[in-house]
Design brief:
By secondary structure, the protein is of the alpha/beta class. About 35% of the residues lie in helices and about 20% in strands. The termini are far apart.
Length: about 210
Amino acid sequence: MILPLERRRALTAKSQAYAGNADQAMPYLASRGLTKEVAAMFSLGYVSEGEYAGRVSIPYVTPGGVVAIKYRCADISHGEHKDKDLKCPKYLSESGVGIHLFNAQVLIRCADTIVVTEGEMDAICVQAYTGLPAVAYPGVDTFHKQRYFRLCFEGVGEVIVVADGDEPGRMAAHKVAESIGMNARVVDLPNGEDSSSFIASQGAGRFLERVAS
């Protein structure tokens, strides 16, 4: 979906305003192993008022401007419970912007290696701390419905799909890798781990060793 220029400008302006409040997002971002510098690198921010107040803003930045913003519940006391158990639903999104791969602009360079994760925060951690370009998909069902997603990886030498450390995560990763094709492989993480938690606890070097094996 190609957004009109006016909408992209409006989303970009919103994202910049939220990024000015990034300090208020740091309790949540720090809980995911992210620093102020990484938040700035990906234009992460915080919504202090309005419909999405109290949420971390995660902009989907492209060379043509911001095409979407996800809003993540910043209440770390909820941990990673399922949405139905939350007073604060985990994610909310802007309406009418379509569905996109997060950080897809790295695919323009046709890198030799691309890492694919299931969540935006995981892609951010991977790219910021390992140097590997990383993108995220918004759920395995969404990946299959957006048939053009797999075409975005044409020309990439190797696609590493990182599986979260549980059965649904592993099933999702294998389905995504199968959709992408011959240049994709799956790397499993230990039980209960995702890319950001693994990097936070084991270090970027151990993550690189795992994806290289």
